[in-house]
Structures are given as C-alpha cells and as structure tokens.
Amino acid sequence: MAVVAAAAGSAVGLGNIWRFPYELGQYGGAAFLILYVLFVVLLGAPIMLSEFAIGRLGQSDASGSFRKIDPRGKWWLIGVMGVVSAFLIMGFYSVVSGWTFEYIYQAFTNQFAGKDATTLASNFTEFSSDTVRPLLWTVIFMIIAASIILLGVKDGIERSTKFLMPLLLVIIIALGIRSVTLPGGIDGLRFLFQPDFSKINSSVILSAMGQAFFSLSLGMGCMITYGSYISKKNKLGHTVAEVTLLDTLVAVLAAVAIFPAAFSQGINPGQGPELVFITLPNVFSNLPGGQFWAILFFILLSVAALTSIISLMEVVVAYVTEEFKLKRVPATIGVVLAVLVFSTLSSLSFGVWREVHVFGMTFFDLFDNVTSKVLMPLGGLFIALFAGWVMPAKLLKREISNEGRLKLRFFNFYLMLIRYVAPLGILLVLLNQLGLGKWLGV
Ligand code: PFF
Question: Alpha helices of 59-116 — where are they, by DSSP H?
C-alpha cells in the first residue's frame, strides 16, 4: 500500500492544481481538456504500466533498472536523461512550492480579505519579483523535503496521502461549488467544457501531451524508481488505473474551481503561472470563513507539492546512491544544494532577471518547457520502445501478471498501445511541432 500511495502522491501535485489550469487557460479551454484526456488514456496509462514493470523487474534505480533487464544495450541512458529532467523540474517546482508557503503565511495573517482581483494580482507580482523572499521559502521547502527523504519516507507519505488527499479533494469540490455559483461563473464552465476545435494547433497538442507526462510523473524514471519498491503481489494494472483516475479527477476539479471564479471576476484565463494564486485568494476574500478555507487549502496544496518533490528527489538520490555508491545523507544534501542553484535562476526570472532570456525564454519557462515538452516525451518514447520492442513480450507479461497469477484481459491491447500508438503518437506530436507537417504538406 505505501508505495501505491506514494505514486499517487507523486502524480497529484502542483501539476494538477497550478499547472493544468494555467496551461488549459493559455491553450484554449475545452479543446485542450479533450486532448489531455486522450493523451492520458492512450499514452500516459500504458507508459506508467511499463515504468512500473521495468522498475519492479529491474529492482534498481531509473537507470540501473534498464541495465539489469538489458545489460548490453545503451538503454540506461534513458535513466540518465530522467535524472537530468528531475533536476530541471525541481529547479522550477521548488520555487512554486515556495510560493505556496508564502500563501499559507498570507492566509494566516488574513491578507486576502476584502481585496479585489487587481490588488491580489499586483500583490502576487510584488512578492514573486522580490529577490530574497521567494527564495527563502524555497530553501525552507527543500529542507523539509530533504528531511522527510532522510527520515525514511514511506510511513509519512502513506499517512499524508491517505488522510490529506481526500481532504484536498473535499476542499476543491467545495471551492468548485462556490466558484460555479458566482455571478457569471457559467462562462467559465463553458470555456472548460464547450470545445472550440478551431483553437487546436501544434502547440496546443504538444502542451496537452507534455502536461499528461508532467502530471502523471512519466518519462523520467520516477515511476520506475517507485516501481522498484512495489511489492511483487501488487496488481500493477489496478494501481495504474487508480493513480491515473485520481490524478485526472483532481486536475479537472481544480479547473472547475478556478475558471468560473476567474470569469466571474474578470481575470484573464490565459494569465499564466499566477492564475491560481490570484483566482482562489479572490474567492476566499469574499467567502464567509474565507480565512479558514484559505489556510487549509494552501496547506494541502503545499503537502501535495511536497509529496511530488520528494518523488523527484528520490529519483536523483536513488540514482546517485546506487550508481556511485554514495551514502544517502551526503547524496541528499548534495542534490538539494545543486537544485537550489536552478531554483535561484528560476525565482529571479520573475524579478531582476526577467529580461534574461535563453532560447527566447526566462530560466523558469526554459526549465518548464524543456522538461515537459521535450525531455519527458522523449523519455516516454524510449520507455515505450524499450517495453514494447526490447523486452520480450513474455517477460513483460510475466511481470505484469505477477508470474501468471493474474488473468490479463487487457494485455494485447496494452501491447498494441505501447508498441505502436505511444511511440508513433509522441513522434508525430514532436515532429508536428517542429513544423515537419508543413514541409510535407499535411
Ligand atoms: N506529477 C507532479 C505534479 O503533477 O505536480 C510533478 C512531477 C512529479 C513530475 C514527479 C515528474 C516527477 F517525476
């Protein structure tokens, strides 16, 4: 049970409540949602199952598991790429996690009360563009995450996921009801559920695919690492179904809580990373007992972020301890210090280094885009190829069916997805974004 809860804890995080709504807002609403769900079902679920199987069979870290299964191949490099992705993701994820701490603080000191959307927006800008304050929260957050990793994660994560996750769901549902009943809220629902297919273009498709990988923690060895801890008795197919459903549910409910409120208050749905940090405080500010709800919500959001960042850290820590025979304590401290360099670059992207651009993006956007739109899909592509074409199908089936003890009705369908649909799908989306479709005239 503990590891299943940990996998859910990894998947459900800022990706669902912060990133999903803002990407959806920027990339056209319902059309994005439909694409997203398609990617989750056709690519996400089969790749998650493959990652679990690779990890549980290989019994090693994100890279070592490939080597155990195919000692002569070069597939272990996928794991190395995953470790790089984990670093870059932590580099911006830790900053947004730090923001959640600031917002717990602001909720405690009742700073949302009576403020309108414009004031809340300028408060966010003022805070996030500060040089020191956001970084301080990031450092505190990383120290807490590292302590949990060092104190032995399993119990803590299991307890927090089993108890706090349902609570998070209840709060998001309550916020959703409140949001939908605000004047003009219905326009937000329309934006979310009434698709305008003319909005679909190659960037929308790529960002929906990237979000599916990001939200399910796929394509970078996280679920391989956790898979290596999963008991041999666990029904991997069921676990995948549970984690995927829960993750998608939280994302959709978060969007239901955010968009009607945003439309009701005249907040631009394409606002960007600050969307949730402006919209929900605005809901709290006009709610009876709003301060209480705000405190609870931001605490739960930071816990969700914590269980996700722990899984990212675990990818890197497991890799360095197993591959370089380092002890866990120095490995963890080293990882945190290195991540903080990236965090600093990301955090300053909102302030003094706003104008510093690499490939036309700020550091924050660069880390975010490179991971979810390039590295994770590429990792997913190679993982699909490895599970579908390198591992003998018999071996894969034996692992997923717990040595033949489980009847697998879905195995052939899964094999088709992992052999053909997932690799071709990912490749087409990436090539399409590079404009190759235009050259070929399709
Ligand atoms: N899935 C997490 C979220 O949605 O917040 C983010 C994440 C965690 C991505 C762990 C990748 C990962 F390995």
Answer: 64-69, 76-108
Among residues 50, 61, 49, which one has the least CA distance to residue 228? 61
| Cβ 308 under 6 angstroms from ligand 1 | yes
Q: What are the structural domain ranges in the chain?
A: 2-440
DSSP string, 10-74: HHSSHIIIIIHHHHHHHTTTHHHHHHHHHHIIIIIHHHHHHHHHHHHHH-S-TTHHHHHHSTTSS
Give the burial class of 50: count Cβ atoms within 10 A of its Cβ; 0-12 exposed, 13-18 middle, 19 or more buried: buried
Per-residue CA distances from 126 to 14, 121, 158, 168 (Å): 21, 9, 37, 28
Cα separation, 442 vs 439, in Å, equals 8
Give the CATH class of 2-440. Answer: mainly alpha
Closest approach atom of ligand 1 to CA 311: 10
Give strand pairing partners of 358: 361
Which residue in 288, 194, 308 sits closest to 247, CA to CA? Answer: 308
CA angle (90, 93, 95) in 5-degree steps: 110
pLDDT classification of 156: cutoffs 50, 70, 90? low
Report the separation in Å between the CA atom of 218 and the middle of ligand 1, taken as the mean of its atom positions: 8
* pTM exceeding the 0.90 threshold for the entire prediction: yes
One-letter amino acid of 350: F
Query: For the segment 69-101, what is each residue's pLDDT rounded down to a tens digit?
Result: 999 999 999 999 999 999 999 999 999 999 999
Contact 208, 32 (CB under 8 A): yes
Q: What CA dihedral angle connects 233, 237, 239 and 245, to 10 degrees? A: -170
For the chain, give me the number of helices (H) and strands (E)?
23, 0
* Ligand 1 geometric centre to CA of 404 (Å): 31
In whole angstroms, give the CA distance from residue 33 to residue 193. 8
